[in-house]
Design a protein that fits this description.
The structure holds 2 protein chains of 2 kinds.
Chain A (H helix, E strand, L loop, with lengths): L1 E5 L2 H8 L4 E7 L2 H4 L5 H17 L5 E7 L5 H4 L11 E4 L3 H10 L5 E3 L1 E11 L2 E6 L15 H4 L17 E2 L2 E5 L1 H11 L29 H4 L3
Chain B lengths: L5 H7 L4 E6 L7 H11 L5 E4 L11 H11 L3 E6 L5 H13 L4 E5 L20 H14 L16 E6 L6 H14 L3 E6 L3 H13 L7 E6 L5 H10 L7 H8 L6 H17 L4 E6 L8 H7 L22
Helix pairs in contact in B: 4-5, 5-6, 8-9
The chains are: A alpha/beta, B alpha/beta.
Bound molecules: iron/sulfur cluster.
Chain lengths: 225, 321
């Protein structure tokens, strides 16, 4: 899922200090799961921000509302009536959720409460690791289920660079395993090293502007003939 | 001849080739380039020009290489995948060819987190393997990536690649080398070798795979300047391994004799490496020690360098092939 982290409070204060009535909107989706933008965190954001306002000799009325999923139009109409009473919105969703809110309520300034970090997995409560760069052309099939785009610091496709440390860590950090060392070891264990013996051609990065995905079976609904 | 470069001619004639490394300056002071280059002239067959090594911004490797061409010193232009996408890579290869550069080394490059631009966005659009295939296609078929129509003009480039025999996954390193040769590498320069026995064992595997007959393997060597430098390299340089016995030997001599000891070790290593079957030459990485290249090459018995017949390179005319 998407992992995010709260922005520094000072940055949020800077963005919102000109407003008297602020609506903090949490998200019950990914950012709630990663403990950055759910009910509890949005409430905490309100408390922290109110305090900073006070410390700066300002007062603001800050309210909290949590939307089930901010990246989905059905849910974001939940705040339609409420939003009229506020000068601005702070959204604790991922970047996509912030944008949908901003698009739906055009006349309101919508500020991001979070930095959207990556697509990752949960190691433990509050501990997440990046595992996917959403490249659009999944490579995991030939790399033993270890992503070379994400987990190799140089996103190499044909084997390790020359910098791998003797303990099998990446040249960039002794705490990070070299993805290609792991790929080799795993493929060897599964008896399929030949997967990485032939030359893998350059990627199709599909890096052509904001992408649109139409799920198969839905083409006739969205593509006009 | 694939490129007609001096390095290619030397290797083709069966001479034991010698290359070294040249670090461009931070800035545009060309007197630094010219002074350093004079130490190299005539003492090696070609010189690698690094491409913002350790990810520190420096005078570009293309510009520096072109200056060396004008001076009549043959460059091996290093090109990393770190800073250029496939458009820039191909365009820069055209540019290099047009400026008379005939050797290049395709490498992934030191990660930008090491350098002086830590907040940069990395590129790594294609990797060094893919860069090798791409240059080979440009040279042999006169075609760019994703285009079937040949372009005009030639790209006579002698293609080099790097290899680290000792880094994990160690077993895969020879297979990785084979892959680079299949991609189109004409010559290989290895990571600095300090453990010659280990390297000999690796070369045995490489020769058993027949790889030494498909490309020229140049063994990398770096003379140790001091005990401190040896320790620093062992601990900090990515992929570098120095046996404890050498570190102790360096630490055992007084400071003022350390450099001398380093050169002695180097000369012994050259002797041993020349004996290893399958080795076509030597790549000397004497970082910021360019001024000692004349002495080092002399004492290691690497001089004089062969002067190749029919070598039009030294006319200094970029158009001349
Ligand atoms: S050490 Fe391994 S993970 Fe790190 S950049 Fe090199 S190949 Fe990638």
């Amino acid at each position: 899922m998407i992992k995010a982290k709260r922005k520094p409070l000072e940055e949020l204060f800077d963005l919102t200090k000109g407003f008297q009535r602020i609506l903090c909107v949490g998200c019950g989706g990914c950012t709630s799961v990663c403990l950055a933008g759910g009910q509890r965190e949005t409430q905490m954001l309100k408390t922290d921000l109110s305090q900073l306002f006070r410390e700066n000799g300002k007062s603001a009325h800050i309210s909290v509302f949590v939307i089930e999923r901010q990246c989905s139009p059905e849910y974001i109409s939940d705040i339609e009536d409420m939003i009229k009473d506020y000068g601005c919105v702070i959204s604790a969703a991922c970047g996509a959720g912030v944008q949908l809110l901003a698009e739906r309520y055009r006349s309101k300034p919508v500020f991001p409460a979070l930095n959207t970090m990556f697509v990752g997995l949960d190691r433990s409560t509050g501990l997440y690791q990046e595992r996917c760069r959403t490249c659009g052309d999944c490579q995991l099939g030939y790399t033993g289920g270890i992503c070379p785009v994400t987990c190799c610091s140089k996103s190499l496709f044909n084997g390790p660079c020359g910098g791998t440390n003797i303990n099998g860590s990446c040249e960039v950090s002794r705490e990070t395993p070299c993805a290609w060392n792991e790929i080799y070891e795993r493929l060897k264990m599964q008896n399929r090293v030949e997967n990485i013996l032939s030359i893998h051609p350059p990627m199709d990065w599909t890096d052509k502007g904001p992408g649109t995905l139409i799920q198969s079976g839905y083409e006739s609904r969205y593509i006009k003939k | 001849m694939k490129s007609g470069s001096n390095l290619e001619r030397v290797l083709k004639a069966g001479h034991f080739a010698v290359t070294t490394e040249f670090g461009p300056p931070k800035g545009t002071d060309l007197s630094i380039v010219k002074n350093k280059a004079e130490f190299i002239r005539g003492n090696v067959d070609a010189v690698n020009v690094t491409d913002c090594q350790t990810a520190v911004v420096r005078l570009s490797s293309i510009a520096t290489s072109a200056i060396l061409v004008q001076m009549g010193i043959e460059p091996v232009m290093q090109m990393t995948c770190r800073d250029r996408n496939r458009i820039a890579i191909q365009s820069d290869i055209f540019g290099a060819s047009a400026l008379g550069i005939k050797n290049m080394l395709a490498i992934s490059g030191d990660h930008h987190s090491f350098g002086n631009q830590k907040n940069a966005r990395k590129v790594y659009d294609i990797d060094s393997m893919q860069m090798i295939s791409l240059v080979k296609r440009m040279r042999d078929e006169q075609k760019m990536l994703s285009e079937d129509k040949p372009f005009q003009g030639e790209v006579p480039m002698f293609i080099g690649a790097a290899a680290n025999p000792f880094a994990p996954p160690v077993e895969f390193r020879a297979m990785h080398l084979r892959k680079k040769i299949e991609a189109g590498a004409d010559f290989i320069q290895t990571q600095s070798i300090y453990d010659v026995d280990k390297f000999r064992q690796w070369m045995k595997i490489v020769c058993d795979m027949g790889l030494d007959r498909q490309c020229a393997i140049l063994a990398g060597l770096t003379p140790l300047k001091s005990a401190g430098m040896a320790r620093y390299m062992a601990d900090n340089v990515p992929g570098m391994q120095i046996p404890e016995s050498l570190l102790t030997r360096m630490a055992g001599v007084p400071k003022e004799r350390a450099a001398e000891e380093g050169i002695r070790i180097f000369c012994e290593q050259v002797e041993q490496i020349r004996e290893i079957p399958g080795i076509a030459g030597l790549h000397i990485m004497a970082i910021e020690w360019e001024h000692r290249i004349p002495e080092i090459t002399e004492r290691a018995g690497l001089l004089p360098r062969p002067v190749m017949q029919g070598n039009d390179f030294f006319s200094g005319d970029p158009q001349c092939r």
